[in-house]
């Protein structure tokens, strides 16, 4: 079972949006109507390049990436905004299946989540898309997660909240569950291709009924 992080386990999509918008404004960028959704699921190198090339931030991509990630890390100093019940769901699922995290967040923020929740020993595979190649909606990070868990993607499941994340898991050939992000609802056409849950807490029973062999 592979979990997305932002929007599934951590209520951070709005934080990312706030930080990147403010950073862009301070550095000469102009936020586009599509920028928020465009960057959802992008790896760090991808969204940093987007900020420079599409938004017009007057820095190079490495500088943009370092600046935004440093601000996100500062926001996480008091602990990441873990969603209610998320830890309990991961523990319950991990008692029955091997679990992984496949996230577009940089490794430093994934580690922050695992340390704050004491899940480091429960989640043996925790990957950033920047370690896998292309970010979501490309399937790279999900394919790598399945490989590191030692299972075929078609015998794995993923849970996501965003359009690009759902597309990535579908492209990997996984069974896909959606917990739609209330702030940035996924594309209805993509939701029609997956199993939609009302809440993350519904995941254990949904897995029990389908019994994926992760």
TrEMBL record:
<dbReference type="Pfam" id="PF00702">
    <property type="entry name" value="Hydrolase"/>
</dbReference>
<dbReference type="InterPro" id="IPR023198">
    <property type="entry name" value="PGP-like_dom2"/>
</dbReference>
<protein>
    <submittedName>
        <fullName>HAD family phosphatase</fullName>
    </submittedName>
</protein>
<dbReference type="InterPro" id="IPR036412">
    <property type="entry name" value="HAD-like_sf"/>
</dbReference>
<dbReference type="InterPro" id="IPR006439">
    <property type="entry name" value="HAD-SF_hydro_IA"/>
</dbReference>
<dbReference type="InterPro" id="IPR023214">
    <property type="entry name" value="HAD_sf"/>
</dbReference>
């Amino acid at each position: 079972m592979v979990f997305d992080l932002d929007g599934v386990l951590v209520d951070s999509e709005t934080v990312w949006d706030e930080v990147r918008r403010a950073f862009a404004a301070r550095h000469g960028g102009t936020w586009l109507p599509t920028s928020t959704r465009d960057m959802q699921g992008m790896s760090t190198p991808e969204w940093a390049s987007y900020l420079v090339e599409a938004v017009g931030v007057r820095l190079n991509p490495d500088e943009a990436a370092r600046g935004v990630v440093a601000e996100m890390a500062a926001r996480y100093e008091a602990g990441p905004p873990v969603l209610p019940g998320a830890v309990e769901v991961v523990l319950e699922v991990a008692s029955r299946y091997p679990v992984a995290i496949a996230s577009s967040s940089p490794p430093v923020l994934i580690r922050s989540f695992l340390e704050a929740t004491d899940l480091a020993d429960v989640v043996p595979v925790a990957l950033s898309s920047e370690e896998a190649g292309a970010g979501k909606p490309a399937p790279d990070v999900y394919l790598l997660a399945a490989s590191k868990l030692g299972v075929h993607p078609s015998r794995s499941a993923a849970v996501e909240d965003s359009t690009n994340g759902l597309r990535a898991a579908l492209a990997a050939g996984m069974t896909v569950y959606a917990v739609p992000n209330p702030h940035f609802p996924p594309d209805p056409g993509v939701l029609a291709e997956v199993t939609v849950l009302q809440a993350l807490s519904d995941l254990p029973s949904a897995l029990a009924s389908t019994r994926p062999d992760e």
